[in-house]
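Bit of a strange request maybe. I'm writing a small parser for structure token strings and I need a real example to test against, not something I typed by hand. Could someone generate the tokens for this chain?
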Amino acid sequence: MRKISELTPDDFPGVDAEKFAAWKEAEKSAGKNQMIATAILIGAAIITIPLIGGAIGYFLPLLAYFAFSIFVGMPNGKKARRLMEELGITRAAIQEARRREPPE
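Reply from user aminoacidic:
Good idea to test on real output. This should exercise your parser:
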């Protein structure tokens, strides 16, 4: 299965190449932000649970995770979804294109 970064406008006939490149960049950024948010959750949990303990020790990492996801991750995710709608690309079409062999 191909990665999203390997997809080309040729995989989706009739899409604008410039908007397609912007969509791929937004998808990449949203995925990167999700990985950072997960790292923040794990790091905060490793630090706060042993130091603080109790319910607050479990609550603070989740709070940090959700805050990062909302304020940093959501704008990129919204941009990617908006561009998908403008291009007329669906999640099913993306999955199908990822399964296909790349055009030679």
